[in-house]
Amino acid sequence: MHDTNAHRATQIFAPLTASAVLVNPVGLHARPSVKLTQCAKGFTAKIEIALAADGPWTDAKSPVKVMRVKAPQGATLHFRISGPDGEAALTAMLALVHDGFGEA
Amino acid sequence: MGEIQLTGHPASPGLAIGPVAVLTSVVASRAAKGDPAQEAAALKAAIEGAAVELAELIATVHSEAAEILEFQVAMLGDDALAEGAYEAVAAGKAADDAWRAALDAEIAGYRAADEEYFQARAADLVDIRDRVLAGLNGADAIAKISGDSVVMGDDISPSAFLAVDWTRGGAIALAAGSPSSHVAMLARARGAPMVVGLGPLPSNGQPPSLALVDGDAGTVIFDPNPETRRLFEHRVAAANAARIAADAGRLKPAVTADGRRIAVLLNVAAPEDLAGLDPAICDGIGLVRTEFLFEGSRGLPGEDAQYAVYRRILDWAAGRPVTIRTLDAGGDKPISGLTIDGERNPFLGLRGIRLSLARPEVFRVQLRALCRAAVHGTLKVMLPMIAVPAELDRASAMLDAEFAALKAEGIACARPPLGIMVEVPAAALCAEDFGAAFYSIGSNDLTQYTMAAARDIGAVADLNDAGHPAVLALITRTVEAGRKRGVEVSLCGDAAADMRLTNALLATGLTTLSVSPIAVARLKAAIAGVTA
């Protein structure tokens, strides 16, 4: 577990990273990308997604940019998140992907 | 001019005859171009106006259409979409030219996608582009189309589709388009026949006046000869009669050609699956999967939450029997915090009843909720993955204890009959030895454990055959055990919805099959064709 107090003391938020496989039938298309960006906008943390662990990174709060990623079903979606509510954001984003955006 | 037949791809089934309505793109020219600041303000106003129009439209449509439009609203609300347009405006370009160029570049990116699904989203971007352009040009975005027409064009936007009353029998014939487009999804939901990918449409000086659309075959005939039209009208009449008969048959009890009454039950995963369904289409619910309650990030469900869901399903069934399966986690259905991670062979590990007995604190909550729900209808409870009688006996003792505890607390409750799923070959071979109130054959697992082949492993998938004589022999054995003990036997796996197996399954003596709601009409029709 991360020591959240240590984070708060330094006010430096090392980026959190994680990945999840897209399980919903047609990948990160219209409705899932809207759900993803709406969820991301609920956090102050900077949230980015990519199809590879080393980027290129895309702003997860922009539906236009998320759609440009064209992430297909079965792709591994990488997250890079930094900010005070980063851990909660990461948990929420991963839950959304694991749930197949409610479409699976 | 003779008739012209074009062949494309079916996008929404059904037949239609109607006058042709040609989609035209709105090409009104704008008055005068202002300075960059005025142009930017005009563009901003047009984008905001388009979002308001869409929001108003969302309020008037059904949920699926609303979600499609919400995607457009989200895209319009994202500054990244107009970024390039504002830059061009600042450099002196007119607002409409700048917007068109920026959106065309975005659209080109979608059309170049590998996945057809992303290509199909181009139609949504075209819709957004044209709605904003119409705002800039002060034109109406959508020409009025009569609902009995065959709409003809290169492609059709969701907005244009939603502006038409499709209950009047119209159809869609497109030169381009995609079966994966949002409009195709909407057309299937509304029952409007649609054919896409027809290629160049006839327009020798003037457009055709009448079209016959075959959304099953993916063909369109423009300006048909009288004989062609007469034959097509016969097909339309026959199709209407068949549909009316099938819909009526869905509500009738299932009976074989030689007069055997077969009970048809439903498989459901959540109460939402029952929305809009008439309980009269079935003889009850043969399988309620409860895993959905335990999935997601909500944590393990409490007793009250489970009780509310079970009660909703019993209320829907209005007295018809409802069989709820206790949690069937593990195997291919991991649940975080409950199933064991990293089991070497999860299908042969701690799953189904084995997991429930290993986690009695979780199982007890479900048993209590089931006892409370049992007072609201005809509830039966079944245990998944039973291999030996001791598992049923232990679960039965726990059910007795929870029932007694509820009664002692003065809470309304009943003890539902407890049956087993027969999906482990050991349970099928020794079915008579179980004191079960009923047997429900889970043909998916029974097949994979009998054939030692998983259906999702391509290299061995052809071995995973529910119609194999070994699997049918185990089903027959279970049916005989049920007959000897005087308890009901049903089958609730995918084999029940495989019409090629209906004959073989009924030949084992089964009289109860459980399938997903979508398969009910087809299964009843297949049963009606079974003679012995």
Counted beta strands of chain A: 4
CATH topology of the largest domain in chain B: TIM Barrel
CATH class of the largest domain in chain B: Alpha Beta
Oligomer: heterodimer
- The CATH homologous superfamily of the largest domain in chain B is named Phosphoenolpyruvate-binding domains
Query: Quick one: biggest sheet of chain A?
Result: 4 strands, antiparallel
Structural class of chain B: alpha/beta
Q: What CATH architecture of chain A would you give?
A: 2-Layer Sandwich
Distance between the termini of chain A: 30 Å
User: Per DSSP, what share of the residues of chain A sits in E-state strands of 2 or more residues?
Assistant: 15-25%
Give the rounded overall mean pLDDT of chain A.
Answer: 81
Order of helices and strands of chain A: HEHEEHEH
Give the CATH architecture of the largest domain in chain B.
Answer: Alpha-Beta Barrel
Radius of gyration of chain A over alpha carbons?
13 Å
Please indicate the count of domains of chain A: 1
**Helix amount of chain A:** 25-40%
Topology record:
The complex is a heterodimer of chains A (about 100) and B (about 525).
Chain A: H1 4-10, E1 16-21, H2 30-41, E2 46-50, E3 58-59, H3 63-69, E4 76-82, H4 86-98
Antiparallel strand pairs in A: 1-4, 2-3, 2-4
Helix pairs in contact in A: 2-4
Chain B: E1 4-7, E2 9-12, E3 15-22, H1 36-58, H2 63-76, H3 79-90, H4 95-111, H5 116-120, H6 122-137, E4 150-153, H7 158-162, E5 171-174, H8 182-190, E6 194-196, E7 210-214, E8 219-222, H9 226-251, E9 254-255, E10 261-268, E11 285-288, H10 303-317, E12 321-325, H11 353-358, H12 360-373, E13 378-383, H13 389-408, E14 418-422, H14 425-429, E15 438-441, H15 443-451, H16 469-485, E16 488-491, H17 502-507, E17 512-515, H18 520-528
Parallel strand pairs in B: 3-4, 4-5, 5-6, 10-11, 10-17, 11-12, 12-13, 13-14, 14-15, 15-16
Antiparallel strand pairs in B: 1-8, 2-6, 3-7, 7-8, 9-10
Helix pairs in contact in B: 1-2, 1-6, 3-4, 4-6, 9-18, 10-12, 12-13
Keywords (chain A): Sugar transport, Transport
Organism (chain A): Bradyrhizobium neotropicale
Protein name (chain A): Phosphocarrier protein HPr
